[in-house]
Amino acid sequence: MPDGEVETQSSGPILTVSDGRAVVRLNRPREHNRLEPVDLTVLQDIFTRVEADGSIRVLVLTATGKSFSSGFHLGALADRLAGKGGEGEDRDAFERTVDRLEALRVPTIAALNGSVYGGATDLALACDFRIGVKGMGLLMPAARLGIVYYASGIRRYVTRLGVAAAKKLFMTARPIDAEEMLRIGYLDEIVAPEDLMTRVEEFSGTLAANAPLAVAGLKRAINEAASGALDRDMLAAVRDLCSQSEDHAEGVRAWTEKRPPIFNGR
What we know:
Blueprint: E1 11-18, E2 21-27, H1 37-52, E3 58-63, E4 67-69, H2 74-81, H3 93-103, E5 108-111, E6 115-117, H4 119-125, E7 129-133, E8 137-139, H5 142-145, H6 151-161, H7 163-172, E9 176-177, H8 178-183, E10 189-191, H9 196-208, H10 212-226, H11 232-243, H12 246-257
Parallel strand pairs: 2-3, 3-5, 4-6, 5-7, 6-8, 7-10
Antiparallel strand pairs: 1-2, 8-9
Helix pairs in contact: 1-3, 3-4, 6-7, 10-11
């Protein structure tokens, strides 16, 4: 797993795959890893590759430098307001990118190496787990910018953090610190900056060791249940598939033999 060394040149998101783990690193540290329109295309392409690669068991989203991300480039928003957006511009690209991340079959971990702002708060919230570092903070400035957020972003805030926390973060546009992020459930853990990737490696190993068909089915069902859209027929089909799978048989054998299971995703 990348150790956090700083790239000399800013670039779009970087993907590395090793031992069943995909690591996506935002890499514009001089701009606090702001997300450019082109970065959204790169991220969507990465998510497509991850979804198609059955050997990948976990995805980690992190960033280079001292900030996780300052969110979507405000200059692009200003250009849009000034009528300078390109013809045929996809105005829903950010929402669709975050939704794609949320819907990935593999479990996802946001390794928050620093503070997170604006749309990047929703990007991290779309991950299944978030591990942050001491001293980081969060700011959602929508009300200060005169913006009403898109539907799926509001849903994620409300279903993951609760109505009260969502209202406070959106409507006051005031920052909160890491301890408050942990208290409201935005963060699952806080670690020292130097321990972040070690802890993420440990946690991703735990996720990767479980049966991938079951993990994917559970993730989808939990996300659907949280949004009030549980597809019971699909859940029944997935349960049948998993109960007849080689992984289920291996899990039972390993349990009775008191050994770690070895799953193959079948």
